[in-house]
Every structure is written in C-alpha cells, then in structure tokens.
Amino acid sequence: NSFVEKYAEKSFWLEDVDAHDPATLGLLHRICEEFSSRACSVAELVKLISGALPQSVDSEPGVKWPQLVSIDRPFAAMAQTLLRRHGKDLNVNYQLPEVAWGFHCDFHRGLWSCRLPPEAESLLDRSFSLEDMIRSKDPALCLKKLPPLNATQVLPVSVARTGSDTLSTMLAPTGLDLHDHQCDARTLLERGAGHVIASLRHPVSRIVSEMQVVFNKTGHVGKTWAEKAYAARGTVQVDRGQFAKSAYYLMKKAFKSADSYVDALRNTSDPNH
Questions:
Q1: What are the backbone dihedrals phi and psi of residue 108, each rounded to the nearest 5 degrees, phi first?
Q2: Torsion-angle region of residue 132: left (phi > 0), alpha (psi -120 to 50) or beta?
Q3: 72: which residues sit within 8 A by CB, 6+ positions away?
Q4: Is the whole model's pTM more than 0.85, yes or no?
Q5: Pick from 135, 133, 139: nearest CA to 160
Q6: What is the pLDDT of residues 38-49, one digit of tens each?
Q7: Strand residues in 154-207 grouped as ranges (E)
Q8: Tens digits of residue pLDDT in 225-266
Q9: Strand 111-115 relative to strand 104-108: parallel, antiparallel, unpaired?
C-alpha cells in the first residue's frame, strides 16, 4: 500500500468499492478510460462490481488489531498510520501510540521496505516521559471531530482527572461541547479558536481521582466506570474521554486493589510501574 501511495498515478481503496454509489463507478470508469488498452463499457463495469458494498476495516473477518499487534507491532502501527492518513475510521481503543510518529519507506537492497522511526520502535522499551506522551498524541483524531472554529469561541483543553468534564460543560454555551483528550492547545488555536482554558489540579488529587474511578471506597475492585467501559468497548469513539476509559479497564485488570497500584507507583522496579 505504501508503494502504491508513493508511485501510483491513480488509486482507490478496495473497501470503498460500492456498486450502489455513482462516484465509485465514475472513478473506475475514468481509470479504465485513461489506462485500459480497450474500450471501457459502463455496462461491463456495472456488471463487474455488482453486489460490491463498502467494507469497514474494523468489521473485516479474520485477524483483528490486537492479534496483529501481538504478531508484529511495528507493522500494525504502520498499517494504522495508512488508515488514518487516508481518512479511514480506526477505533480509538485500538490505536497504537506509535501511529503519531509516522514511518518511512524506501528501497533497501532492491526491495521496498518500511519502518518506524527508531524513537517510535523503542517507545515501549524506555521509561515513561512527558515528551514521549505528547509526541504520541494524534492531532488528526482531534481535527476530525472539530468543525470550523472562530475567534469568539473559548474551548477547553481536556487534561484528564482535573475536572475536565465540568469545564467542558461550563464552556459548551460558547458554541461547542468539546471533551477530547487528543485536542491540545496548539491544535485548537491553529484551527481558529479565540481562546483556550486548561484546568490544573494537584498531582496527588489527580491520582486519587483516578483510583476512585477504578476502585470502590473499600479499596477493592468494584463495578465502576472501568467495567462499564469494557462493556462498551468497540462501540465508542474519542469524545467524552473514551480513550481514558479503555485505560481504566486495563488498570482494573492489572491491579487488584488501590494499595497495589500505589505500591507499583512508588517502586520503580515493580513490573507494573
């Protein structure tokens, strides 16, 4: 796909072929007329694609994203990057952080090959850093949801566990109810927003807030937002912090109590640190 993307004069996604969409027939007819050595019959093209319907990448049978990631994570990240680059939907719960880093393709010893930047390939092998987290955010996920903005709008920068949902509700009367953790201040301002507001909260309070979401008051795993997020997985997109809800579910699986979470947070040698 990356080779076609770079060198093909014209191309289309097979998943987009729809026998009931005139635009599909028009595209195939133009390609046929320009490159075919024989006359192109509209009737013949209609017959060839009859019954074809557009396919969702996420609904294809066979290997799913988690399985592909377990087989070859860099390949999965590059495949997801191609999807995002061409405007295809990708369930945010499955998107890898390496996607935002992009990838490079070229001929190597006569063969076409692609690879992630070295910094992206080693992302999971090094300690967490704020720089890596910011670099791994995908502004395209934010831009896809934003309408044209104007200078009269004041929009929230949704920093998780800082009262961001309350802030979004307060600012909704300015014209846009936005609660998206992928939207940073630069993206919103470059899109045309007049001002942005970000809420701040003490780090300890943020950690306590997170634990309250995942664990009940007794310190044991309860039926909380994390379980609801698991039940809704695959049916929700970016808005209202769904990416965070997926992380809450993973946190609930990894830790059996609030104490075990705090112990791992304190101990850098803990496997779950």
A1: -130, 115
A2: alpha
A3: none
A4: no
A5: 133
A6: 778 878 777 777
A7: 154-157, 195-198
A8: 444 444 444 433 333 444 445 567 777 888 888 889 889 989
A9: antiparallel
